[in-house]
Amino acid sequence: MAEIVMAALVLLGGFFCFVAGLGVLRLPDVLIRMHASTKAGTLGSGLILAAVAVYFADTATITRAVATILFLLITAPVAAHMIGRAAFRSGVELWKTKIEDDAERKLNR
Amino acid sequence: MNIFTLNIVLAVAWAALTGNVTLSGLAVGFALGSAALYVTRPLFPGSDRYFKRVWLWSKLIVLFLYELVVSSVQVIWDVLTPQHKARPGIIAMPLDAKGEMEILLVTNLISLTPGTLSLDVTDDCNTLYIHAMFADDPDAIRAQLKGGMERWVIEAME
Amino acid sequence: MDILKTAVDISFVMVMLGVAFAFVRLIKGPSLPDRIVALDMMTVLIVSFCGLYAILSEDTAFVDVAIVLALVGFLATVALARFVERRVVRRDRAQAADAVAPTTGEGDV
Question: ipTM of this predicted complex?
Answer without folding.
Answer: 0.86
